């Protein structure tokens, strides 16, 4: 009977430690569940119209689709490409008109600004050269405009791509202690 109080004391301490351990494990499980919920909250639901919207916005005003996607740093790149194409078109158009007017003056028998320096064949070649450069400038400008639309569409698609820890690809380095060689590879993990 003398051992009963110490037995109850030991039993009491054991019970308290079990309850504390269960509460701690319950807290860990609850924390993991909350963490998973918070991760799941970060993903927006799939919006099938988001890529079409982004492409439409970029078609209406270049860079607006990138703003819709949140990639504000791409807007100056789009405008720099479009501005460069427009600048070279205007510059080549000005030079084309200059050589074209000189050629017309020469055909009409009037003096031109290139008289004595450039032959008539040279004026024709200069017109062809600047006409070709104008067309290339138009193609570059249209190409940048189309790339702007495609970029907004593709980025809107990729923003909705669900990347979580259930599907991972990791590099795998395995050192073989018997042969002393390292095996390289990839590890594919899928958790469900």
Task: Note down, in words, how this protein is organized.
By secondary structure, this protein is mainly alpha-helical. Helix content is 68%, strand content 10%. Strands 1-2 form a two-stranded antiparallel sheet. Strand 1 (167-176) and strand 2 form a beta hairpin. Helix 2 (50-60) packs antiparallel against helix 5 (120-159) and helix 4 runs antiparallel to helix 5. The protein is elongated, with a radius of gyration of 36 Å. It starts with a helix and ends with a strand. The relative contact order is 0.11.
Proportion of residues in extended strands: 5-15%
Query: In DSSP terms, counting alpha (H) and pi (I) runs of 4 or more, how many helices?
Result: 5
Overall 3D shape: elongated
Please state the average pLDDT score.
82
Low-confidence stretches: none
- Sketch the major β-sheet: 2 strands, antiparallel
Q: What is the chain-wise order of helices and strands? A: HHHHHEE
Radius of gyration, in angstroms, nearest whole number: 36 Å
Structural class designation: mainly alpha
Helix content: 55-70%
Query: How many runs of DSSP E, i.e. beta strands?
Result: 2
Give the termini distance in whole angstroms: 56 Å
Strand order of the largest sheet: 1-2
What order do the helices and strands come in, and which of them pair?
Blueprint (H helix, E strand, L loop, with lengths): L2 H40 L7 H11 L3 H6 L5 H34 L11 H40 L7 E10 L4 E10 L2
Helix pairs in contact: 2-5, 4-5
